[in-house]
Amino acid sequence: MKKIAIIGGYQTAFGELWEKSLGDLIEEAGIGAISDSGIEKNDVNCLYLGNMAAGRFVGQEHVAAFAADCLSLKVPAIRCEAACASGALAFSQACIKILSGKAETALVIGAEKMTDVIGSEAVTTLMGAGDSEWESSIGLTFAGLYALMARAHMHRYKTTREQLAMVAVNNHKNGQKNEKAQFRFPITVDDVIKSAVIADPLRLLDCSPITDGAASVIVASEDYVQKKKIENPVWVLGSSHGSDSIGLHDRADITEMASVKKAAKDVFDESGLKHKDIDVVELHDCFTINEIIGLESMGFCEKGKGGTFVEESELPTNTTGGLKSCGHPVGATGVRQIIDIYRQLKGVSINQVKGAEHGLALNVGGSGATAIIHILGVE
Amino acid sequence: MKKIAIIGGYQTAFGELWEKSLGDLIEEAGIGAISDSGIEKNDVNCLYLGNMAAGRFVGQEHVAAFAADCLSLKVPAIRCEAACASGALAFSQACIKILSGKAETALVIGAEKMTDVIGSEAVTTLMGAGDSEWESSIGLTFAGLYALMARAHMHRYKTTREQLAMVAVNNHKNGQKNEKAQFRFPITVDDVIKSAVIADPLRLLDCSPITDGAASVIVASEDYVQKKKIENPVWVLGSSHGSDSIGLHDRADITEMASVKKAAKDVFDESGLKHKDIDVVELHDCFTINEIIGLESMGFCEKGKGGTFVEESELPTNTTGGLKSCGHPVGATGVRQIIDIYRQLKGVSINQVKGAEHGLALNVGGSGATAIIHILGVE
Questions:
Q1: Alpha-carbon gap: B293 to the closest alpha carbon of chain A (Å)
Q2: Which fold has domain B4-118+210-235?
Q3: pLDDT in tens, B250-294
Q4: Crossing angle for the helix pair B63-70 and B22-37, to the nearest 10 degrees
Q5: Which of A114, A132, A169, B346 has its CA at 20 to 30 Å from residue A328's CA atom?
Q6: Which residues of A are less than 8 Å from B133 in CB distance?
Q7: CA dihedral sign, ordered A314, A319, A324, A328
């Protein structure tokens, strides 16, 4: 596709930020990205906001207009929502706007303020990402949905409880140095396996937390980059969006994600790259099983071999902590992944992959009804 | 801009549809648009859904994935939200996608199921379109916000209570023949003025209702239209999006809408048309004062003369009943306006404007933080 550049980004602290409102988070993220990119605020042509459920979390719909106002921006403001993939959706739609020629630059913010409601209300709100008529109504939580997938995967492919745990262990290890992460302590396989059962076989340390936070990037057209003489931007080499049924019960196979498979095929086709060209991967470990399914469905390993891949592979994944350690402010996560890949490709990550030239970010909505993948690269 | 065509559309009944779920409405609207346009379902490249608050109204977020699933579509599904302008926002983003070359066709659906919650909960949810921190929190309703605008307009410009009422009278008159409208009875100025006070000076018959409903259109690239030999499509001649502060208290002047002024300037510039070229207008009469402010802010009359314009002008406005008579399922309204202009330009409106060649639709979000305008035309 026509070249689109990322020229800066920012992430707020992720965590239980009692002292910050949704507006505070958006303001910090927006100013942070503008400052990091070095552009003038007046050069921002439009705002794309990824947010899942501010209506239920803080009583605010019209969220993009609210966000623009937080930043005193009088530009078209578009809220994009696809549950936990809202961040990547906003990013992808901003890229499309620039491709269309209707804008030269876009500020993309992902934000979610989740801790203003009590925990059970947050869990109920998150179930809005599933099928409200057939899943939420019978009391299925998201941990429950992913537990069904995990159990099926363990049954069919002999994936072990330990292999699931290793996903969380890796991501906590990576998050230790991340000052923006919600959880910065190492855990062991034994810790995971002995933590409280949430939805069998998933335990507390298999699950990403409830989090407040925001993340942001500035995207720009190639013309803009040349005009402003911006050096060494990161380029968007592919952007894809796969879909599947919203309810788990409608899927032919719950041990894989058809949406991820489709998005992976499309993004590799578009970028012209192969799996071996990818130096670093951010992927959606809302629950540990999802990292395994994601790796398989994207084709980084054979179907059913994700557990072994997690044990043995040296592919750098979730190098800043993933959703498990960073935390998962649902609308922000997809944008946070993009920034973390951006930083890897700029050579400034906290856990730098030496010589990283191409990175991939997979953001999943719900139990896989939406999968959005971006491949970024440097020249 | 590069030419984008509308090739079909559909509207469900609008009203208190106790027997229909959000899914039912989306399914009917989606199938209706596909059928009306004559394309195959497999030819739909992507789905853009306008929806304000399904999370609060029916417990469903991830609404576009839900909608795609209702139609068994496995295509990228994007929910766009900008409060009451969500419908036009979805339409505008679909046009941008086609402009970008990443899709040839898009199904755009606007949908809202509002009557599954009690009235006070619906009013609270709608306040999410305003500033949650500064307006909703002090108990200001949307009727309250527009009442402030109406009172200021009456005070400054001598706009009369009768002139406000004439907006509702006109729109009810136009909606009488509309089988899809929620209210199909004529009203008089006296009826409006003597109806119950909602927020002084606005009365019951100044206010659009709480409504269930969906509307849909198919947009396509010029190449697709030529390839499929589609005859006499309607073209999108301009698409603009203006923004303003989300809270009324931050505006320099609450008797006009800066967002509408900006969007109007942009859309006339883009289309190359003048006000006198517009044969028919759909505009956002959520409360009667908003039709007057919309006409002024778009430049159809001088500032302060909107009341007189409503009394005297022969410009056909809201020819199918507007939000007042059709009903206002918030996410659906912007798409419903587009279809109604489309039908005027195809010569098949229930209140046909003879020889209509150009039509304009203004969809407003909240108290004016978002204004989206489209100009459509035939060749």
A1: 20
A2: Peroxisomal Thiolase; Chain A, domain 1 (3.40.47)
A3: 999 999 999 999 999 999 999 999 999 999 999 999 999 999 999
A4: 60
A5: A132
A6: 21, 23, 60
A7: negative
